[in-house]
Write a structure and sequence with these properties.
single chain; seven-stranded mixed β-sheet; 1372 residues
């Protein structure tokens, strides 16, 4: 069989070659449209043009070829790259071998190796690593590299000049697409060290400072390292151990070259350096002193030796690795003063250029100068001729001569102090200057041995070059004597290496003396003049005696520094001279011209000063204050009280208690007190007694002390006694005053008190003294009702329908205690079993208890009404077992206070005394209506009388404790003792109260059983379920009721809140829950107990019944846990036309989608009527799911739901197997408003039996079976006897109905469907508020009515005219 191509060619004569179709057949237009067969093309690009390459001038490329590679011909022959010479056969270059480089001790680093050495090392390493025979180097520029093969190349670097070399080595592949370049870099250099000043020297300076400030610095302008000034002539012993840091400098020698370096150092002054080989052979000579080499023997060699240099270096040779730094130490020890210069020379091996580092040092010694800061003295107090200030050279020569002869050294400088008083200080100073270039130490020898009169500071220190220090000599006159001392200024170098270099003796002289004057004062033990107590017009003189006890004349002078004292005192004489050992008398006069018109007190006044003056200098050397004491005074007194007497409020028609004021003589002289009237009297003034009428004017000066007359003074309602008296110094006189109160007014009078010899300016017409008193009528504030009943409610009138406990009615003038729990007075032994309760009761008590028991039985446990046959009479005792009041003791023959009752209600009344005098108030309560004789009235007041201080208040307590269920009324009266003003004489009001008992009534359960008990009926309940019913009790009374609800344990009934005590406010209710959870099928009975506190008549029992049963078919999952009630959510109908949303519509539907449990309406703005109807058909429905449960274990049932216009059940018909559960979906749909309220839907059920295996079937499953085409299985067909084809898909299985099992199961349905709509009473078109003030609120009220059958959910929103939310917050 031939290939298809040959067959086609032979048959139709076409061929396809290189993508082109050729044929001998005629061209067919449709052939052009046929896609060609796939084929493959390959594009080969022309290699790029090779760029021009530069030849390699400093690099050579060698190929490392092993023995096997050489035999195989790995390295191909080709032209060399650049100008390269052939390599030797042994692999080493012509300029060096690895062996030669390795023989140099291995000190050179890889950075410093040459190219040939690197190549040899690489070959050597390659030979050591390979197990093959030794390799060799060949020169080639082309290679043939097999796949995944490698080739080793060696690059050799050579250079004839210093610098860095960079060249490119290119590689390309035949027919390759890219070129590879390798950068070859190399560097060539001499060995070198760093000459940068900042690296070589530790300290550098751009500008040369002054010579004293230089300290081992490199000066850049002069290019010289200067040691600066150092001490000349110092012994250099121990310099190698660092004993002299000032003479030692260190240079940092750093190898910053590419190779290890060997350096030789020497001093230029020593000529050529020593042989490095010799120095290396003898390491001990490295640190030898440069100038200490042994000279050649003979005089010629000594003549040829260079001059001695102060410098020396260590070490003289160094071997530095790359980047290594070592220190070169340079020492400078000049022997004499002056400048020394030299240079440190350095020569590097393999570097032809030597290096030079200039150095210099200044040799110096301490130099000092002294200068006195005071001029030379002109004379000496001792009469000796002053030595003066000698020249330093002459004085030094004299001192040396004196020291040689062993005499006392002569002072070069003399510091002479003037004559100085004792306890005075004087100081002089001299300056010590360092005139040299090196610092030095100085000290004053003998300064510590000076007497305490002289003090020298500072006495020692260190002084830098060019600086000076001021030395102060302080002279203190401690005792009288003449002093002459000598100290020596010694100068040393800082390290004290050369000892004392200069000594300068200095003399210090001075004299101390004193001035002393004795003063004899008039009084002993008082250093001054004391005049004692004086009258203002007295004139007294005192004498002082001055005596000079020293050898020099003393001047004195008196001065008075205060102008006031200068007017009071005169001194004679004021100044003078006291000769040695002589006396002078001085007179001091007080009030010499009698011009004093005011009171003066001087105590140790020091305004008088006596000054002692040195006559030779007129200097005030001493000031002695003269103390001055004097007391010139008027008559001094004190009146207590100072301004007057005020008796305050006094009850009218009474005489006050006597009140007194006293006058005390505080001065040193007696005076007379006279009391007279001043000004007009109110209302009358009368003087009693002849002495009072004839009394002279008080305050007369200079009169003799008269005898005090007897008598008293009457000023209006005030009586003063005595009216005149003589008071001695330190004594006191009491004046008694009595006030007689009349009427309801204020009384006042003014008396004039006269005291002789008092101050002229102190009320010349008499000392004003006021007397006042107020006559007041007592009473209480009876008009301030709010204050009296401040703790209670005050109403305009009392409301009988809504009474408020403890309230006061203004219109009725009645205080109402309100309704209070009556405290019944006995225990019913039939209600609660109390041990021995009947034994202690009297026959009357037992009879009352029997009547109370009968009343309780006849009322069925309810509260007995007041006045009924079952109600207890007044005075009877009735108690209940829970919360009843305590048992009252027998009241025969005794009246117990109402306030002591534990259940009494108390009201505090506040009574205020607005008057300025105390008042006594009596309180009483008088019952209204008749009272039984001997019976206690349940109202009382305590206390019965009180005393209220002025402008204060007191509380009284009204107590109400009813003993019976009835109303009480009484009159309360508060009466003021001594009534004068009817408005404040008392207060009267009516007091009311009512006694009652708390009560509770049942609202749920409302049904009762045959015995009249409330009946809580649970009815029939399926087994396994639980049910709850509410118990609701209501307080219809006016008092809060406290009760206890409890139930004994029962397996079927449970009080969920548990037994508890609770309280129900008036007109309020309390709800409790009882749960019925039967454990088995049966009928149950139980009781619930309710007991009301403080009401023995209310003990309720609630009957509880329930039945548990079991049904075959039951509903489960109904809303709210119901058994037969289905509550569907409201259905909001979708309107077929969009609702009107016009602004201001009063009747309409909500304008936004409605939210509910069912499908909400959807806004259909602009939709057509048909579309809206379609939407309504879809969304106007709601659904709910519940379950049917078959509780039987062997019965099967068939169920069928009826048809309903609004309800649809799915499945509506089906089978429910034994023990099975089936979910039912009920759909509520409506197109018009409708409401189902408990509509009964009857589901037909009947028991069925299967001929074969039970088959689950309902109409919903049938629909799915029809859709899927399923049929009944063959086993089912055989069991049921169906024909071979079987029933149609989805058909109901054949079953047999059990006779007499058909019945209906009822479920109650609640549902509502309507369109949401409402009615609004707001005005149209807008709500217009009246004008409203700022920060005020105005409201508008309108109604919103839900006119639909469904609930209306709504929310308000304030919008602007544009429809956006209002953000102003003005409307809510």
């Amino acid at each position: 069989e031939a290939p298809q191509k040959e067959v086609a060619h032979a048959v139709v004569g076409f061929n396809f070659n290189s993508g082109v179709l050729s044929t001998v057949l005629p061209q067919v237009p449709a052939d052009k449209l046929l896609p060609p067969a796939p084929y493959e093309l390959r594009v080969l690009a022309q290699p790029p043009k090779r760029p021009k390459r530069l030849p390699l001038t400093n690099f050579k490329v060698w190929t490392i070829v092993s023995g096997q590679a050489a035999k195989a011909g790995v390295a191909g022959a080709g032209s060399a790259v650049g100008a390269m010479s052939s390599s030797p056969a042994d692999g080493s270059s012509q300029k060096g071998s690895p062996a030669e480089k390795s023989d140099k001790g291995g000190k050179a680093t890889q950075r410093g190796r040459s190219g040939s050495s690197a190549a040899g090392v690489a070959v050597e390493q390659a030979e050591q690593q390979a197990d093959t025979p030794p390799r060799r180097l060949t020169e080639a520029s082309r290679w043939v590299i097999p796949a995944w093969g490698t080739i080793d190349l060696l690059v050799q670097f050579t250079s004839d000049s210093v610098g860095k070399v960079n060249e490119l080595l290119g590689f390309d592949v035949v027919c390759g697409e890219r070129n590879q370049r390798v950068v070859l870099a190399g560097a060539c250099d001499y060995p070198r060290i760093s000459t940068e000043a900042r690296n070589l020297y530790y300290k550098t300076a751009k500008v040369r400072p002054s010579t004293p400030q230089i300290k081992q610095q490199f000066i850049m302008p002069t290019n010289t390292f200067e040691f600066g000034p150092v001490l000349a002539g110092r012994d250099k012993a121990g310099y190698l151990e660092g004993a002299h840091p000032d003479h030692t400098a260190r240079f940092r020698i750093t190898n910053n070259g590419l190779f290890p370096a060997h350096a030789d150092f020497w001093l230029r002054s020593n000529g050529q350096p020593p042989d490095s080989a010799t120095a290396a052979a003898d390491p001990k000579k490295k640190g030898a002193f440069a100038g200490a080499a042994k000279p050649a023997t003979g005089s010629k060699a000594a003549a040829a030796a260079p001059p001695a240099t102060p410098f020396q270096i260590q070490p003289t040779t160094m071997d530095l690795a790359i980047d290594e730094t070592q220190e070169l130490t340079v020492f400078a020890f000049p022997a004499t003063e002056g400048l020394f210069e030299d240079s440190v020379m350095c020569r590097l091996r393999d570097n032809p250029t030597p290096l030079e580092f200039p150095i210099s040092v200044v040799g110096a010694k301490p130099s000092v100068a002294v200068k006195l800061n005071v001029p030379a003295v002109s004379h000496e107090p001792s009469g000796k001729t002053p030595t003066g200030l000698r020249r330093a050279t002459d004085a030094g020569t004299a001192a040396k001569g004196a020291a040689a002869k062993g005499a006392k050294p002569v002072a070069e400088y003399i510091m002479q102090f003037d004559r100085l008083l004792l306890n005075r200080k004087d100081s002089q100073s001299f300056t010590v200057s360092n005139t040299g270039v090196v610092p030095f130490k100085w000290q004053l020898a003998g300064a510590t041995q000076l007497p305490p009169d002289f003090k020298v500071y500072p006495s020692s220190g260190e002084l830098p070059a060019g600086k000076h220090v001021c030395v102060t000599v302080e002279f203190t006159a401690i005792k009288k004597q003449e002093l002459s001392e000598l100290v020596t200024l010694e100068v040393l170098d800082i390290q004290e290496a050369l000892g004392i270099s200069r000594s300068i003796p200095m003399a210090i002289r001075g004299e101390a003396y004193d001035i002393h004057v004795d003063i004899k004062f008039p009084q002993e033990n008082f250093a001054g003049v004391d005049y004692g107590p004086l009258r203002v017009v007295d004139s007294v003189a005192k004498q002082l005696v001055l005596k000079n006890t020293e050898k020099y004349d003393v001047k004195f002078s008196f001065a008075i520094r205060n102008e006031t004292v200068k007017q009071l005192v005169q001194i004679t004489p004021e100044s003078g001279v006291v000769l040695p050992n002589k006396e002078v008398q001085v007179m001091v006069h007080w009030n010499k011209d009698l011009s004093l018109r005011q009171e003066v007190i001087l105590v140790n006044n020091t305004d008088i000063v006596m000054t002692l003056i040195e006559p030779s200098t007129d200097n005030k050397e001493q000031q002695v204050p003269i103390k001055l004491s004097a007391h010139a005074q008027f008559s001094h007194y004190a009146i207590t009280p100072a301004r007057g007497l005020h008796f305050g409020p006094v009850t009218y028609n009474t005489v006050s208690k006597p009140r007194t004021f006293e006058v005390v003589n505080l001065g040193n002289f007696p005076f007379t007190l006279r009391i007279t009237a001043m000004g007009a009297e109110k209302p009358t003034e009368e003087v009693v007694g002849k002495a009072g009428k004839g009394s002279k004017t008080a305050g007369k000066r200079g009169s003799a002390t008269p005898e005090p007359p007897a008598g008293s003074l009457q000023l209006g309602q005030f009586t003063l006694e005595p009216a005149e008296a003589v008071i001695k110094p330190g004594a006191r006189q009491e004046v008694s005053v009595v006030f007689k109160a009349e009427g309801n007014i204020c009384w006042s009078a003014v008396a004039a008190l006269g005291i002789t010899e008092r101050d002229f300016r102190d009320q010349p017409e008499g000392i004003r003294y006021e007397l006042a008193g107020e006559s007041c009528i007592p009473g209480i504030d009876a008009t301030n009702i709010a204050s009296i009943f401040e703790e209670h409610v005050v109403l305009s009138h009392l409301d009988p329908f809504k009474p408020i406990n403890c309230s006061f009615g203004l219109r009725d003038k009645v205080f109402n205690f309100g309704t209070i729990i009556a405290q019944l007075q006995d225990v019913d032994p039939a209600v609660v079993a109390v041990p021995d309760a009947g034994a202690a009761a009297t026959k009357a008590d037992k009879k009352a208890a029997g009547s109370a028991k009968a009343a309780a039985r006849s009322s069925g446990g309810g509260a007995a009404k007041p006045g009924s046959a079952g109600a207890p009479a007044t005075g009877e005792f009735v108690t209940a077992p829970f919360g009843t009041p305590p048992r009252w003791p027998s009241t025969s023959g005794q009246q117990i206070s109402v306030l002591s009752d534990p259940g009494a209600v108390k009201a505090n009344l506040k009574f205020i005394n607005p008057i300025k005098v105390p008042c006594t108030v009596n309180f009483s309560i008088k019952p209204r209506g008749g009272m039984q004789s001997g019976a206690r009235f349940p109202m009382d007041v305590s206390p019965s009388n009180i005393v209220i201080p002025p402008h204060e208040y007191r509380h009284v307590t009204l107590a109400f404790s009813p003993r019976a269920i009835q109303q009480y009324s009484a009159m309360f009266e508060a009466a003021v003792v001594g009534r004068g003003n009817p408005a404040t004489a008392g207060f009267v009001c009516e007091v009311r109260g009512e006694g009652t008992l708390p009560s509770l009534s049942f609202q749920e359960p409302s049904a009762t059983d045959t015995s009249g008990r409330p009946h809580l009926k649970f009815g029939r309940l399926l087994a396994g379920r639980s049910s709850q019913l509410l118990v609701n009790v209501r307080n219809n009374g006016v008092l809060p009721a406290t009760a206890r609800l409890e139930m004994d344990h029962h397996p079927a009934f449970t009080l969920l809140e548990g037994p508890q005590v609770f309280m129900v406010e008036s007109k309020k209710a309390a709800t409790f829950t009882v749960e019925f959870h039967p454990p088995e099928i049966a009928t149950y009975h139980h009781e619930l107990h309710l007991r009301v506190k403080q009401n023995p008549f209310e003990q309720h029992k609630v009957a509880i019944t329930g039945e548990c049963y079991q049904d075959d078919i039951m509903f489960s999952g109904l809303p709210g846990g119901s058994v037969d009630t289905l509550s569907l959510p409201d259905l909001y109908l979708m309107p077929t036309t969009p609702p009107s949303t016009a602004s201001g519509s009063r009747v309409g539907t909500p304008s936004e989608p409605w939210r509910s449990h069912s499908h909400p309406p959807v806004a259909m703005a602009g939709a057509s009527t048909g579309a809206a109807a379609a939407w309504a058909a879809v969304f106007n429905s709601s659904s709910c799911i519940f379950s049917m449960v078959n509780n039987s274990s062997n019965k099967h049932f068939r169920f069928k739901w009826p048809e309903h216009p609004q309800l649809r059940f799915a499945p509506s018909i089906g089978h429910l197997h034994a023990g099975a559960t089936k979910n039912i979906v009920v759909t509520f749909a409506a197109t018009s408003p409708v409401k189902l309220e408990g509509q009964e839907i009857k589901m037909a059920i009947s028991q069925i039996t299967y001929k074969g295996d039970p088959i689950d079937w309902d109409d919903v499953l049938a629909t799915h079976m029809i859709a899927s085409g399923a049929r009944v299985s063959s086993a089912t067909r055989a069991a049921t006897g169906l024909p071979g084809a079987g029933p149609k898909p989805g058909a109901e299985p054949i079953v047999d109905l059990v006779a007499k099992t058909q019945r209906d199961l009822v479920i109650k349905v609640h549902a509502a469907a309507d369109t949401p709509r409402y009615e609004c009473s707001a005005p149209s078109p807008a709500i217009v508020f009246r004008p409203t003030m700022m920060f005020q609120t105005r409201s508008f009220t309108f109604s919103l009515t839900n006119s639909a059958l469904t609930a209306l959910e709504y929310c308000w929103e304030v919008l602007t005219r544009e429809g956006t939310p209002d953000s102003t917050g003005l409307y809510k």
